[in-house]
């Protein structure tokens, strides 16, 4: 298996090789998108646009930011096929969650002059071995330079889970991004890794030493070798199966829908008369950010 690897691709294999096979080897199109991913994309879209306005010297108000989110939500949800795995939650609950994430971030960072933005939604790549045999890519939510001169890699998290500091100090994703940033910008000083846990309105940070990055480089190369040598792709059932887009076709999924009961065929009946399609309701006009 050649090409670029990413943190999400590596994590997918670690979590469940069968899901990895469906997604990256067989390339089976996902029939639906998890609502958590849908919310995350819309929040990221709005924050990207917000910082582009800030870079132009314009700081929109919170009301404008939330209007932009509502507009994007309405635009994208119309054609989306989302699935909600968490019982007892509705689509409107997730829209409110997105609004909460944006409100928390806005109030904590206004007037957005704490750092100088270097790049937004930046695609970065690096070669782990120097020859291009082990290539990594990723997208940085925001790359900034703080007032003390340090580069910072900022990442927005819309999920409810907030890892411990020890877990963040072992986090692979932003550390891989750091390798790529050092390769692109020839950065020799310390780089600060920053996570924004938007639901809780909390910020956490971490740093990596040269020895830590070297050890991560070796572990990641070893993991890529395991992926390339895999032939069986065993399933690993877990509570996360409820969020998997392939749980309806995976024979090992504990939440796979039960087969419909077999019934004797009924006598044929004439098809019902076709009904005219229901008229579409006019969509409201919302102000954009």
Would you spell out the secondary-structure blueprint of this structure?
Blueprint: E1 4-5, H1 7-15, H2 17-25, E2 33-34, H3 35-55, H4 62-77, E3 82-83, H5 91-109, E4 115-127, E5 135-146, E6 151-157, H6 165-169, H7 173-185, E7 191-197, E8 202-206, H8 210-229
Parallel strand pairs: 1-5, 2-3, 6-7
Antiparallel strand pairs: 4-5, 5-6, 7-8
Helix pairs in contact: 1-2, 3-4, 3-5, 4-5
Summarize this structure briefly.
With 289 residues, the chain is of the alpha/beta class.
Tally of helical runs: 8
Q: How would you spell out the order of helices and strands? A: EHHEHHEHEEEHHEEH
Number of strands: 8
The low-pLDDT segments are 257-288
The overall pLDDT, averaged over residues, is: 88
Strand content: 15-25%
| Outline | globular
- The secondary-structure class comes to alpha/beta
Question: What is the gyration radius calculated from CA atoms?
Answer: 23 Å
Largest sheet: 6 strands, mixed
Cα(first) to Cα(last) distance is 42 Å
The helix content, as a percent range, equals 25-40%
Descriptors:
289 residues; alpha/beta; 6-stranded mixed sheet; two-stranded parallel ribbon; globular; disordered C terminus
Report what the structure shows.
- By secondary structure, the protein is an alpha/beta fold.
- It contains eight helices and eight strands; from the N terminus they run E-H-H-E-H-H-E-H-E-E-E-H-H-E-E-H.
- Strands 1, 4, 5, 6, 7 and 8 form a six-stranded mixed β-sheet that branches. Strands 2-3 form a two-stranded parallel sheet.
- Strand 4 and strand 5 (about 135-145) form a beta hairpin.
- Helix 1 (about 5-15) packs across helix 2 (about 15-25), helix 3 packs across helix 4 (about 60-75) and helix 4 packs antiparallel against helix 5.
- It is globular, with a radius of gyration of 23 Å.
- The two termini are about 40 Å apart.
């Amino acid at each position: 298996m050649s090409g670029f690897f990413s943190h999400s691709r590596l994590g997918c294999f670690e979590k469940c090789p069968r899901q990895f096979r469906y997604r990256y080897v067989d390339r089976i199109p996902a029939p639906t998108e998890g609502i958590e991913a849908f919310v995350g994309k819309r929040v990221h879209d709005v924050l990207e646009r917000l910082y582009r306005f800030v870079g132009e010297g314009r700081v929109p108000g919170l009301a404008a930011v939330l209007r932009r989110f509502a507009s994007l939500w309405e635009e994208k949800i119309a054609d989306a096929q989302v699935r909600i795995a968490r019982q007892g939650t509705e689509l409107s609950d997730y829209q409110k969650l997105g609004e909460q994430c944006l409100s928390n971030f806005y109030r904590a960072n206004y007037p957005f002059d704490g750092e100088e933005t270097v790049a937004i939604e930046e695609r970065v790549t690096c070669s782990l071995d120097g020859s291009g045999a082990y290539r990594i890519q990723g997208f940085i939510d925001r790359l900034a330079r703080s007032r003390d001169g340090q580069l910072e890699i900022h990442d927005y998290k819309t999920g409810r889970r907030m890892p411990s500091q020890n877990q963040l100090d072992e986090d692979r994703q932003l550390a891989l991004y750091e390798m790529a940033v050092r390769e692109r910008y020839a950065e020799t000083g310390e780089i600060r890794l920053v996570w924004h846990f938007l639901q809780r309105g909390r910020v956490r940070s971490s740093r990596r030493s040269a020895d830590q990055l070297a050890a991560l480089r070796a572990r990641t190369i070893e993991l890529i070798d395991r992926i390339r040598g895999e032939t069986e792709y065993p399933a690993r059932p877990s509570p996360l199966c409820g969020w998997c887009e392939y749980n309806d076709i995976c024979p090992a999924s504990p939440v796979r829908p039960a087969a419909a009961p077999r019934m004797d065929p009924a006598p044929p009946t004439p098809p019902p008369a076709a009904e005219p399609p229901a008229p579409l309701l006019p969509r409201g006009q919302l102000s954009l950010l």
